[in-house]
Specification:
By secondary structure, this protein is mainly alpha-helical. The chain has 14 helices and no strands. The protein has one domain.
């Protein structure tokens, strides 16, 4: 029997089905959050059971933006390619949709809401991230792409301890201290901590965390991940209810993308899906794998287009109204979210078949 040299044996390629599953779930979560907004923002004006149901769905759907950013970091940072190759591929994939949909939503606003919106104001809003409520993510993504070539050098030469130190600073500066300040203000004792460390502020922590967890998370972390995921869900649900009752108004302190519970929720979800990859590889085969890949491939387009369907259904532009506050949210939120998701998916699949529009999704 021929002998195999372990040092020269290549590891089998990683099955990235879990990445597709994560994209599908994260995109579903985005739709749920936006659909539930009509109820969750109306604290005190709706029955408690209505608001509580919306709060539960919103808490359960936390973390989609963090998941998308972590997946981007996990997939992009390990690669090695020239600046030219990277920017040609990535910005060709992002800039065209960004410009196209920014123009689309500015015209949408002008047609339905602001008939006096002129070119100068459109340009001003585009430059200042005031086009439409969901497009802020594109500005974040482009910024992360700009710094990715440099971050690749960092992670390629960093040990686990180095990355842990960087992520620890990110947690302190971007997550913990701002949350403590917000919490102190909520309970009536406002204060401000002055600690500026620019390289670790913002969403870069999620970006590098995705790389870190893909590389270092193991089966041993799964029980802890389940515990952290469950506790983070409870903190978000009960914390939001408490915060709203405290100020007698809707509070986003536990919903914020940079809230510590949000970070732990998303990180635990990421670990659980990644570690479930071998099981998914055995269970999801053939047609279901292809379908998952199809829907995951449409996720970016669904993100861009889904607010149009929410708007159309909310305002009865097709002759009927469908929104999350027309019936008990425990039932209507999943139904409306499913409708919006399905319509968005169909629209994206159609657009992908039109050559002149294909690159916009």
């Amino acid at each position: 029997m021929p002998q195999t040299n372990p040092s020269t044996t290549k590891a089998p390629p990683e099955d990235l089905l879990w990445v597709d599953v994560a994209r599908v779930i994260a995109m579903w979560s985005v739709v749920v959050i936006h659909v539930a907004a009509d109820v969750i923002t109306e604290w005190g004006t709706l029955p408690n059971s209505w608001w509580g149901a919306a709060n539960f769905y919103d808490s359960l759907a936390r973390g989609p933006v963090a998941i998308f950013i972590m997946l981007s970091g996990a997939l992009l940072l390990p690669q090695a390619e020239s600046y030219r190759a990277f920017f040609r591929k990535r910005f060709g994939r992002v800039l065209i949709p960004f410009l196209a949909w920014s123009l689309f939503y500015l015209l949408w606003r002008r047609h339905f809401y602001e008939p006096t919106l002129g070119p100068a104001e459109m340009l001003r809003r585009f430059a200042t991230d005031r086009v439409y409520f969901h497009l802020w993510f594109m500005y974040v993504l482009i910024g992360l792409y700009l710094i990715t070539p440099w971050l690749r050098v960092l992670v390629a030469n960093a040990s686990k301890k180095d990355l842990g130190y960087f992520l620890g600073l990110c947690f302190l500066v971007s997550f913990l201290l701002p949350f403590v300040e917000s919490l102190a203000g909520l309970v009536g004792h406002p204060f401000h901590i002055k600690l500026v460390i620019e390289p670790v502020q913002g969403f870069v922590g999620y970006f590098v965390l995705g790389y870190f967890l893909r590389k270092y998370a193991s089966e041993k972390t799964v029980p802890t991940a389940w515990l952290v995921w469950g506790l983070s869900l409870l903190v978000c649900f009960f914390g939001t209810a408490w915060a709203c009752a405290r100020i007698h108004s809707f509070s986003t302190i536990f919903y914020d993308n940079m809230a510590p519970n949000h970070l732990f929720f998303a990180a635990a979800f990421f670990i659980l899906l990644k570690q479930a990859s071998p099981m998914m590889g055995k269970k999801v085969t053939g047609r279901w794998r292809r379908m998952t890949g199809l829907v995951a491939g449409a996720s970016f387009g669904i993100y861009l287009i889904h607010p149009t369907f929410i708007d159309v259904l909310n305002h009865g532009r097709w002759g009927f109204t469908l929104r999350s506050n027309i019936w008990h949210p425990a039932f209507i939120i999943p139904f409306v979210a499913s409708t919006v998701y399905f319509l968005s998916l169909l629209a994206v699949l159609l657009i992908q078949r039109i050559p002149i529009l294909r690159r916009t999704v």
